[in-house]
Automatic annotation (TrEMBL):
Membrane topology: Peripheral membrane protein
UniProt keyword annotations, A-Z: Cell membrane, Membrane
GO cellular component, one term: plasma membrane
Places the protein is found: Cell membrane
Family the UniProt entry places it in: Belongs to the UPF0161 family.
One Pfam assignment: YidD
Major site of localization recorded for this protein: membrane
Signal peptide: none
InterPro entries: Membr_insert_effic_factor_YidD
Protein name: Putative membrane protein insertion efficiency factor
Lineage, opening ranks: Bacteria, Bacillati, Actinomycetota, Actinomycetes, Bifidobacteriales
Length: 110
């Protein structure tokens, strides 16, 4: 079996989960993209082993003790891409809104 075959099989399995299980439950993921979409992107970008490992680490972080937020799949593979000293951390990233900060124009007092 080729690497592409394994990759397609894993992506199909995740899509089955999204369609038949996740679609019938309330959203619970604390991150964007959702953990299942993150897993698909990671597997498509880095393959089954590396992408699957990134997806597993993401699932371990998705719990009630973590704030969540925007967490894109890194452009460069690194298990430590969330760490400030990682080269993968230097890529441009979206930053989540700070939920503690009021929405409005601070300069005009709104």
């Amino acid at each position: 079996m080729s690497k592409g075959h394994h990759r397609n099989w894993m992506v199909r399995l995740i899509r089955w989960y999204q369609k038949h299980i996740s679609a019938h439950t309330a959203p619970r993921c604390r991150y964007y993209p959702s953990c299942s979409n993150y897993a698909i992107q990671a597997i498509e970008r880095f393959g089954c082993l590396k992408g699957g490992l990134l997806a597993l680490l993401r699932l371990l972080c998705c719990n009630q003790w973590n704030r969540g937020g925007i967490d894109d799949v890194p452009q460069l593979y690194s298990l430590f891409y969330r760490c400030s000293w990682s080269k993968a951390h230097e890529e441009p990233r979206l930053t989540p809104l700070d939920v503690d900060e009021p929405i409005g124009d601070k300069e005009n007092g709104l």
